[in-house]
Amino acid sequence: MKIKNIISSAAAIAFAAFTLGGCAESTEASDKTQAQTSAESRTAAVSEDKTIVIGATSTPHGEILEHIKPVLEEKGYTLDIKIYDDYVLPNKALTDGELDANYFQHTPYLNSYNSENGTDLESAAEIHYEPFGLYGNGVTSLSEVQPGASIVIPADDSNETRALLLLQQEGLIKLPDDASAEKGVTTLDIVDDGGYKITTVQADTVAAQFGNSDEGSLAVINGNYALAAGLDVKTALAIESADGDAAHTYANIIAVRSGDGQSEKTKALIEALKTDDVKKFIEEQYNGAVIAIF
Questions:
Q1: pTM of this prediction?
Q2: In CATH, what number is assigned to the domain containing residue 182?
């Protein structure tokens, strides 16, 4: 009996040791798995944090952003460019957190969007401006423009203001003495239209309507739409003066959510854009249709 008891006790001790050892190994394995999962999560978070998602229109904004991709990669950032073909969705996507920034608009448009939608997006930097051009169909100089000629201009608030200021700059019309880019004007504010037939249409259709217009007609076209339509800014009868308030008022900006202007992503993006290399790229690529403003 004593021998059996001794054997039974030894077996019990061995089983207990095995069980405890198994539990310890299981606990240790579980701890390692949890630690590994946590590390992977942190790595994924860091990786995600190093991706800058930005919305832009294709020309010239998307092209300029493509140019700085290698620079950001050297700094450890991946630039994910989302291309949009309108002026509303990029701001909505930024507001909703789908984007870290966008690059397609100027401050007056952003202010108008914020006012109409109750948002608080803000400008983080001015990058370039696209001078509006006055183009003539079969007309090579303003001296050839005939009385009563038709002039097509963009209809939306800020672009209509720019177009009218350009027409006044060239002496074709007269606006109120206090007319300015900041204050804004419409065709209703014209003091003297010079006898011209001024028509407002949606900004992205001006180039197409100009292409189908009668000889002798004129059109004021946004720089990016002129580029997209294959128009050479050097053939324009006139362009916005770089010395006018339109250059800075209508500078295209990097827009972000309120408070994100000093984030690491935003700072890295702006540093990559505001370089001599980018300025040279803009000069060579767009031949005056896009002008760096930094």
A1: 0.70
A2: 3.40.190.10
